Amino acid sequence: MKRLTYPFDEQQIRSLKVGDMVLISGKLFTGRDAVHKFLHEGGKSPVNLKNQIIYHCGPVVLEKAGKYEVMAAGPTTSIREEPYQWEVMRDHGIVGVIGKGGMGPKTLEGCQKYGCVYFHAIGGAAQVLAEKIKSVDDVHLKEKFGSPEAIWELTVDEFPVVVTMDSHGGSLHSVVEETSSKNLSKELSKKKTKKK
Amino acid sequence: MKLDKDQKKNLYDSMLELIRVTSTQIPGDVQKEVLKALRREKKNTTAKYAMEIIDKNIELARSKSQPLCQDTGTILLYVNHPAGFHQSEFTKVFEKAVVDATKKGYLRQNSVDTLTGKNDTMNIGLGHPSIHFHEHKKKSLEVKLMLKGGGCENVGAQYSLPNVALEAGRDLDGVRKVILDAVVKAQGKGCGPGVLGVTIGGDRGAGYIASKEQLLRTLDDTNDIPALKKLEKDIVETSNRLGIGPMGFGGKTTLLGCKISALNRLPASYFVSISYMCWAFRRQGVTLSGKQKISKWLY
């Protein structure tokens, strides 16, 4: 188990490799479909994202006596941000992306070029992950995009993730995709031989 | 048969409780398969790690009475009712329970106007919640609820056979090929290990609706039709040999179950409609008494 502690920098990020299990402590900013499209279309980010981590997440947040409480906060599917993510790396200087399902070649290239890494959180594990959130520090664009699509500024402690795309061109997703496709071809030809 | 004031109040309480339990507790038949998967995965792998976190999450959601997953999904409600039942009256009460469940945080603000992008904030809008009424011969009211998240809904697929690229013809072998293709394509994205609900035949719309209804069967339920029973088993076993694994990390468990039904089709059509459900399988159901109180939990 590796640890990544705020403030984050490129050197820490470059040391991470595919398959590393990492506990992140520090700040995260949620951002999903609406935020990525907004930034892509030239919208001004309400926060400075330099050396920060973006978390693909639309949490359930309740407001109790003027304070925000996160009730559930697992990752959402990342591939929808594939058209935009590399650009956010280039223009805003983020060093990490947390999500689920992995991302494509544009993002992988961005990770190498701009020093960024893709962390896979466990999809659906909204309670385990919400428990790691120690405070909600701010929220941006909530009126504009609605609660799940807002930028929530969170402080987390030992937030568990797995590196599935690193800054050296490694991607667990392309490896599993390749082996599973090969295995499927094998399975299908097995049946054919049996029939003969 | 109109409801009186007490019955309405009881129905509201029952529906709110149904939503709470569905959102926060995984049904026993699914948890059993999750535990099997946890034992199956090798020590010190990311697959094992994923299953351990999933297992912890199930316990935590139950004990804190908070949503298992933050995407509380499409609200799919299946209502089996006796003749003479007032659907619009029921819908009104159910929608009130949805609004209050959203305020309490059992449901996320999850319903967005497709044209304006505006979140209505209370989960009520065109097509949401999605309520399916069926008249049955029993006197009691039976209500089943499924909360189906967007990640798994997005990896659902519909194939029209024959499919030249996949060499899939209009027979069960062709059906098998397209289902396995969908499993490979879904990897990582649908929060695996998942469960498939499949319907062969029907028109495009009926096929998808019926495929979701297959997810109402418990995972240990076997098909009455021998050919489909065999195919269900084969799809799970073959998928688990593909090496996709939990979350697409690689590993031994890709599917927890597969349920298949068939509908008649037109001579010209042969659809295979596949609905994917994530491991965070939220489904519950209740039978209501005449007073509209919960008399039995169905899962």
Walk me through the structure.
The complex is a heterodimer of chains A (196) and B (299). Helices cover 33% and strands 30% of the residues of chain A. Chain A is of the alpha/beta class and 196 residues long. In chain A, β1, α1 and β2 (21-30) form a beta-alpha-beta unit. Chain B is an alpha+beta fold and 299 residues long. Chain B contains eight helices and nine strands. In chain B, a hairpin with a 5-residue loop joins β8 and β9. In chain B, α6 (172-186) runs parallel beside α8 (226-239). The longest helix of chain B is centred in the N-terminal third of the chain and has 20 residues, at 5-24.
Task: Tag the structure with descriptive keywords.
heterodimer, A: 196 residues, alpha/beta, fumarase, 5-stranded mixed barrel, two-stranded antiparallel sheet, 7 helices, 9 strands, globular, B: 299 residues, alpha+beta, Dihydrodipicolinate Reductase, domain 2, 5-stranded mixed sheet, 4-stranded mixed sheet, 38% helix
Task: Kindly summarize this structure in a few lines.
Chain A is an alpha/beta fold. Helices cover 33% and strands 30% of the residues of chain A. In chain B, helix 1 (5-24) crosses helix 4 and helix 2 (28-40) packs antiparallel against helix 3.
Taking the alpha carbons of the first and last residues of chain B, their distance comes to: 28 Å
Chains forming the largest contact:
A-B, 49 and 53 residues
SSE string of chain B, helices as H and strands as E: HHHEHEEHEHEHHEEEE
Question: What's the CATH first level of chain A?
Answer: Alpha Beta
Number of domains of chain A: 1
Strand order within the widest sheet of chain A? 2-3-6-7-9
Portion of residues within helices of chain A: 25-40%
Question: Architecture of chain A, CATH level 2?
Answer: Alpha-Beta Barrel
Low-confidence runs of chain A: none
